[in-house]
## 1
Amino acid sequence: MSYIEVKGLDYSYTKNKKVLKNIDFSINKGDWVAVLGHNGSGKSTLAKAMVGLIEPSIGSIKIDGLELNQDTVYDIRRKIGIVFQNPDNQFVGVTVKDDIAFGMENLAVPREEMLKRIDFFAKKVQMEKYLDKEPSQLSGGQKQRVAIAGILAMQTDIIIFDEATSMLDPFSREDLMKYIKKLHEEGLTIIMITHDINEALLADKMLILKSGEVFAYDDSHSLMKDKDVFRNSYLELPVALEIANSLTEKKYDSVKEKLWEYVSMK
């Protein structure tokens, strides 16, 4: 049985405008799934629905066999957490220590256990030296690490990253992606909402949304072979795919241009 099952999911912000339309997909435990789509395709709305921040109009979300509803939402949140685009939106405490503790307090974790987890997960994300700092004194990358520590401390085994790299500088972005890869290697299930194709290529699978519907869902390597999938969903083609297409079509000047562009970005 799939670890995460989403069936027939609809969501509307207004009566006449559906943001999500009949969304169906499943995710196995330990998968890394990148969710892509053009602006307004429903990516962040889907993420909010999966952690119970909004209630779908119709359809169901099951995590580890447990259906998400008003009665089960807190049990579900023991299994799944979310890191937002702007980590400032998640901070409520005066110090880093307070913020890591916040989710555990909501789950009524005993204080002695809570303190052990704060120390353990602060070290895990290399933020143990900042426990008494105010979050406002941290860099963007450090704030994201604190947000991750807070979720890990709740002992969830699914993390959603909702455009978590988009506000970071290139160094912090690369650093966070390395850490996400490490979390995946440790067995966590990763759902990464992103508009960056190169980040998405690191995932096992890609779920592409178009106008609120599932346009494509397959393993990353299979989708990489189909240039029309990206073009028809209004996404930029990965550099490697553009080069491969140009070589196939013998457009060698285009290949040189793309390679130079790619190298210049490194």
## 2
Amino acid sequence: MSIVKIMPCLDMKDGRVVKGIHFVDLKDAGDPVENAAFYQAEGADELAMLDIAATLENRKTRLEWVQKVSSVIRIPLTVGGGIATLEDIEMTLQAGATKVSMNSAAVKRPELVAEAAKKFGSERIVVAIDARRSAAMPSGFELVVAGGTQAVGKDAVEWARQCEGLGAGVILPTSMDGDGTQAGYDLEFTRAISDAVSVPVIASGGAGQLQDFADGVLKGGASILLAASVFHYRKFSIRQVKDHLRSHGISVVGP
């Protein structure tokens, strides 16, 4: 088993960190720069920053947010939201991101994933896959885009396979059914993705208890564990999560 990493996530809107349930009912969760510095000091292995309104508002990621957050951390920073072209990727990386995450733009033009992987390296390209349950799909999960507002009519697990083939270095699946609920990762969806690809998979959406993190690895097959609410509202520290993972025989970074 590989070393598992902990990745707090800053969902951004109007310059603030926010958190909702099922991608809506957003509540303020603080300043992004303060949160980023706090999480690094706490022992986070990576950080995600997702501009959740960029695609819906038909605009690019706010690069000033990337610059401010990246200036206070040394850990890898994955940035997503509104990234639709090679130029967007280049500017985001220049602003301080380590990796970029694409979702709607990749679905719209899959060649972008291949072009980006070739130009910037697969290790910098993350494809975020949002899905919800659908009996009409072979895997039982349908791909959704535009912040979860539009169903695509495409099987989410097959799309993950396609993305890996195009050169994506990391897959970030989020279940719309679990996001923000703190009811646990959607283990069935996470496992379906991790079984379908060989690149790292980030468990995302719904972590609420310490056991959820261990289950994300042991049952979901994830190697990176993303969470927002439990960290933003200080329900658990990153140290508590890592201690719990160690108690289940899972290797983590740090003390």
